[in-house]
Design goal:
The protein is α+β, with helices and mostly antiparallel strands. 24% of the residues lie in helices and 39% in strands. It is built from 4 helices and 13 strands. A 5-stranded mixed β-barrel has the order 1-2-8-5-4. The chain has a 3-stranded antiparallel β-sheet with strand order 11-12-13, with no helix packed on it. A hairpin with a 6-residue loop joins strand 11 and strand 12. The chain is globular, with a radius of gyration of 16 Å.
Amino acid sequence: MTAAGSVHASCVVVEEAGVLIRGPSGAGKSSLSAALIERARAAGLFARLVADDRTRLSLAGGRVVGEAPEVLRGLIERRGVGLFRLPTLGACVVRFVVDIEDQPERMPEPDAATARLLDVPLPRIALRRGDPEAAGLLLFTVRNWPARDREASELAFAPQHGKMMRSAPHAPVQRNGRPMAADPDLERNEFCAKTA
């Protein structure tokens, strides 16, 4: 594993996808993290805090790994209230980058949909600062990204190139030549277990 220091960002894992949330101080990284965890759990999904405000990034097997600095592990700040303890996951593979911005582009250019962390390209989205629907939009994006764009999903799952493929337009996604199961979460978990 190659260490690379920490960045000013929060990190949450939803199912198997690590989500790195970047933004300036006071942008709402902690609030978005907490709201994303709450929305995911309400939808019956596994979700945990990995790091709040500072995330240590490293490279392992061509994947970006995020974890909390030891002194901050398990803590999340709620501005104006203080620090709280939340159940955490020690580390995760970062699959998405989220930037909190004052005025994100309504229809971003294709190159704005990619961020590079430790020279690894990852899918990126920008969310408007203070948007009450940001957590819902982020959860929708994380759960539906592979169906949105094959090239972008391959950026997120770079070590698994060739193991995900799409059939004809408007047909269900296929994996290893099989139609996707009726329960996409079951299929995704099965696929991730086989390719981990």
